[in-house]
Design goal:
Strand order of the largest sheet: 5-1-2-6
Number of strands: 6
Helix content: 25-40%
Shape: globular
Number of domains: 1
Order of helices and strands: EEHEEHEHE
Number of helices: 3
């Protein structure tokens, strides 16, 4: 069975409020996302709802706000039962900006 991880996001919106989220995924999926974002050097917005956005200068800024915890299958099932597989954004916290073109897409 594939090892699950819990990715936790802790951001700060305009020094006014802490923004948090989480996602359950696999290490492989997270590593692929983090690699894409580490190589993303454009400014982008990350919607947090209520017409508010987090602004980032580059993808690595978002990656730096994530922490990864390895979890067991039982822990993953418990979290999914209580909160679902993602919490904090309707689109999920492992966001790739619109317009991103990977090397594989060219």
């Amino acid at each position: 069975m594939t090892q699950k991880i819990l990715v936790k996001w802790n951001g700060d919106w305009a020094d006014e409020m802490d923004i948090q989220g989480m996602a359950i995924t696999t290490q492989v999926a997270y590593d692929k996302w983090a690699s894409i974002m580490q190589d993303y050097y454009k400014e982008f917005e990350f919607s947090i709802g209520t017409n508010e956005e987090m602004y980032y200068c580059r993808g690595s800024d978002l990656v730096d706000e994530m922490t990864v915890t390895h979890i067991t299958e039982i822990e993953a099932l418990t979290i999914e039962k209580l909160f679902g597989t993602s919490f904090g954004r309707s689109e999920g916290i492992l966001y790739i900006p619109r317009g991103y073109i990977s090397v594989d897409d060219e």
